[in-house]
Design goal:
- This protein is mainly alpha-helical.
- The protein has a single domain, classed as Serine Threonine Protein Phosphatase 5, Tetratricopeptide repeat.
- The chain has six helices and no strands.
- The radius of gyration is 12 Å and the shape is globular.
Length: 98
């Protein structure tokens, strides 16, 4: 799936069936369902899940918790816009599935 296809899926009422849990979390975040996105990533133990977890807490405004999760992800805290970071995460995950 390309980033354009993933973005197009955001107009749907449910995430595409052929994406993994991490992309599903980003899909729910884009649908303003922070709780559902958080519920998904908090149950996955991976650096990519920690990155999304960090992004979600940054979006929430809980910067201390976000720093903790950025550390767990092996990434520095982002200073990009939330939209740009969402796009970076989505692109990275989609590239990993190719």
């Amino acid at each position: 799936m390309t980033i354009a296809e993933f973005r197009a899926s955001l107009s749907g009422v449910a995430p595409p069936a052929n994406i993994d849990e991490l992309l599903t979390a980003l899909w729910y975040d884009a649908h303003q369902d922070w709780d559902r996105a958080h519920e998904i990533v908090q149950n996955i133990d991976s650096a990519d899940a920690a990155w999304i977890h960090a992004y979600l807490h940054r979006k929430e405004g809980d910067h201390g918790n976000a720093r903790y999760w950025y550390s767990r992800s092996g990434r520095s805290p982002s200073n990009r816009s939330l939209e740009d970071e969402w796009e970076e995460i989505a692109r990275t995950l989609l590239e990993q599935t190719r």
